[in-house]
Amino acid sequence: MDAPDVGLTIRGGTKLYPGTVALNNVDFDLHMGAVNVLVGENGAGKSTMMKIVAGVEPLTEGRMELFGKPVDFRDKNEAARNGIGIVFQELNLFPNMSVAENIFVGREITRHGVDIDLDAQRAATRKVLERLEHGGIDPDTPVGDLRIGQQQIIEIAKSLIEDARILILDEPTSALSAAEVEILFRVIKDLKADGVGIVYISHRLEELVRIGDYITVLRDGAVTGARSMEGVDLGWIVQNMIGGASKDFPKTDVLEFGPEVFRVEDLVLPRMGGGFTVDHVSLSVRSGEILGVYGLMGAGRSEIFECVMAQHPLAKGRIFVEGKEIREKTVAGRIARGIALIPENRKRDGLVEILSIRENITLSSLKDFTKIFHMNLAAEIQAAKDFVKELSIKIASLENPVSSLSGGNQQKVVVSKALMTRPKVLLMDEPSRGIDIGAKAEMFRTMRKLTADGLGIVFVTSDLDEVRALSDRIAVMADGRITAEFDASDVTSEQIVAASTPGKTTEDQSNVKEPAA
Amino acid sequence: MTNATASQPAKDTGSSAFLLVLLKARTFIALILVFAFFAFAAPNFLSASNMVIMSKHVALNAFLAIGMTFVIITGGIDLSVGSIVGLCGMVAGWLILNGIDIGLGWTMQFNTIEICLIVILVGLFIGLINGLLITKLNVAPFIATLGMLYVARGAALLSSDGRTFPNLNGNPEYGNDTFYLIGAGNLFGIPISIWMLIAVGLGAAYVAKRTPLGRHIYAVGGNEKGAGLSGVQVDRVKIAVYVFSGFCAALVGLIISSQLVASHPATGNTFELNAIAAAVLGGTSMSGGRGKIAGTIIGAFVIGILSDGLVMMGVSAFWQTVIKGLVIIAAVVVDQAQQKLQARVVLQQQAALNK
């Protein structure tokens, strides 16, 4: 390749974990002043490779060179000293500390090594934030008060302040709104112009095509494709990622929908300091139907589900399952009435990671195995086994902790738990978040199968293709309101995006199904 | 090369699996070692009478530790158990000596069974207050039970102006002269308090393993929010564990005052720390979600045998304290090693599956 400037190279890189080969003899070139895109399914070895570059893990075999000199980082600090910064997918910030304190944590500017020079830190913070087009953030604001997108910027600022010549961004946009993504892309462009070498990991393929200069595709720990981005299209990426024909979203023939199974009327959730997080929302879904709720982060999508699941005591509105109003105030009561939720954040809300796979699957349905107070463990194991088989969850043993599974399999455990309660309606909050393409396609097939069995599904997503491919009907949200509802068969992406743009809701009111007063 | 890498991990798995079994049984191994050591080193250690005395000592701590284990599994802590022991002992003493003056120039007296029930109710009630403070008023468990530690201890001291209730021999006329039997009685040659421990221990282990409540206790400790969203009634579960801890403490209060045939308001001071130590020694994780009743009971035996054995060997009490502390720290260090190894073995299994 006629690369002007290769900053870092890996040759014959192999990384063995006990029992697995995470990286198998890979070659990787990191171009300076360019965006080096890294793609692959979960478990393909992207994160492992970046951990090696950032000094978190050493290579088992092979060598790494930085600007022509062989390097072997002992830890993350040594890598940082050599100008390598990494922004992990999960933010590592201290919410109660100020922006400046966060940026300088662990490397405070001090006078005589004791007294922290706050003014110098503030000034440096302002400077770096201006460079990142976020001069409006006050260095003294607690990071917890910032939006997720702004917090991401703070993470990047942390790397820049160390004069990072190489910046690794691991799924930086997974929590950002469209507008924030634009800003991030501009920032990346600026950094590129300054000669910083950027490694960009993402599952959102369109993004990669847009901002990438070089692309490296990994599959099962090996590089399956590496080239300049010119002429690369989605098909090429997907083919190299999954090593075969593209896995399309399954769209089975639309079956006849049954009667309405689930309806919310006039759901309201007041926001702290005025206004509404959920603003008089009404929705309904029929048996066998998939309703996709599309909206950007912060549009109030997840909050609808939280209200339905009795997580907000201040929420008002009426909820019906099969025409009967739900008055139960507890989660258990609502589950018993046939509502099941698959939360967006598996780790935080969906799983008890310390418990075994079996215990997680049956957690919501222990009653089924209990007589008075005695639990029939054999029946429990059998039921868990049935679900493992039905959803083809890949496990070594039912008794292993659920944290040992990959993202896609963990998601299946959460789905099993929900299904075991025999729900009438399934609420899925970003069902494909953090799982790889193969697992995604499988998840979608499962959803279709479930509706064929008469379930109603409401799912929330911020992925346009997903909502179009998977829904029978699409509701678009912005600013806590439903701004439009479409039949999925005759709607364009433009219409959906237009309705989802906040602040434009007045024109789109004509499309809103006003709740019956 | 592929062959080499394939067989290498397989061997690794075998040896680490064996190591894991050893680590899992570590509290039991420690118990055997401690026991064997004193059998050699301490005279009369193996005599039947010593065994009985020792198990009576251990039982007191074991009761508290069982209650404590559930609390810790939910991610909480109960610092008030020692004080509840003291207060419950005083309540028992008061009931035997004075009865309840209902203000009509006439005093209500109770028989042994009634006294036991009342004392247990007191324990349950204090546990309930702990639970309500923690769930409904959102007080951190450490603070809520620390406050209760002082309140209950103060109440115990107030009840007698700090004096001891002596000679709780009871009165045959009231049917409470059998009170001493709780601490001193035998059934089939085994002390009643040990029978009680067996009953409570089996009951607790059953609840932990085979009832929804038990499962919910682990789930709440593992991930409170996730458990709540799965339909677990988190508040109820938490209240239940503190109530049960209060129940265990009340039993200990009864047993001690019965054994001594007297109740002293300072009884049970720092018992909570021994209970926590036994739970931790038995593999209960202070961050919640993990722990076993059997482990806790074995842990209580290790601590109890250690201190009794050292006394018999004539080791100074100060050294005993140091040794006890070292054992607890060592237990947690080994526990960490086990967790690491276990995670590795599981990941290997999972990785083998993906090949």
Features:
heterodimer; A: 517 residues; alpha/beta; 6-stranded mixed β-sheet; 32% helix; globular; B: 355 residues; mainly alpha; two-stranded antiparallel sheet; two-stranded antiparallel ribbon; 14 helices; 4 strands; 74% helix
Q: What gap, in angstroms, lies between the N and C termini of chain B?
A: 16 Å
* Percentage of β-strand residues of chain A: 25-35%
What is the approximate shape of chain B? globular
Report, as a whole number of angstroms, the end-to-end distance of chain A: 66 Å
How would you describe the shape of chain A? Answer: globular
Give the largest interface: A-B, 44 and 39 residues
Mean pLDDT rating of chain B: 86
Notes on the structure:
The complex is a heterodimer of chains A (517) and B (355). Chain A is of the alpha/beta class and 517 residues long. Chain A contains 18 helices and 24 strands. In chain A, strands 6-9-10-3-11-12 form a six-stranded mixed beta sheet, sandwiched between helices. In chain A, β1 and β2 form a beta hairpin. The radius of gyration of chain A is 25 Å and the shape is globular. Chain B is an all-alpha fold and 355 residues long. Chain B has a two-stranded antiparallel sheet. In chain B, α3 runs antiparallel to α11 and α3 packs across α12. The N terminus of chain B is likely disordered. Chains A and B meet through α10, α11 and β20 of A and α1, α9, α10 and α14 of B.
